[in-house]
Amino acid sequence: MGKLFIDKTIEIDAPAAKVWEVITNPGINSQWVAEFSPGMQLVSDWQLGSRVLWNEANGKTVVEGNVTKIEPGKFLRFTVFDVELGRTPVTDEDGMTFELVEKDGKTKLFLLHGDFATLAEAQKYYDMTLEAWNKILPKIKELAEL
Questions:
Q1: What are phi and psi of 128, to 5 degrees?
Q2: Residue 82 confidence (pLDDT)
Q3: Omega before 115 cis (within 30°)?
Q4: Which of 65, 102, 104, 125 has the smallest number of CB atoms closer than 10 Å to its CB?
Q5: CA–CA separation, 49 vs 45, rounded Å?
């Protein structure tokens, strides 16, 4: 199987700084992260190499990773590993990537998430995650445009 990435783009009527805040601020991002699982929290200090934890409402970490590339306000990539499945080999492009490009006060948010091909049930996880992103990106847009 080749690579299997979710690759989506959404235009947001807000500056990149506001979109960045929606993605990284735990007081805001919990509203879109909950689309993956109700009560889910995304925890990180968003520094290069820092841990990124996806915690359930009870505090249990279910997904973990590390920030692998960051340019505040413009670019964020971090690895994503289901704690139950363990870590699989990754390339520089693997994980969850947000790229923000601002023009005339609007921001294009580019999302790249994968590589799902490294997982045992690749298509199942890809389909489930794609369904979630189809709800999450409009939620990020809504939150940034408030």
A1: -60, -45
A2: 84
A3: yes
A4: 104
A5: 10
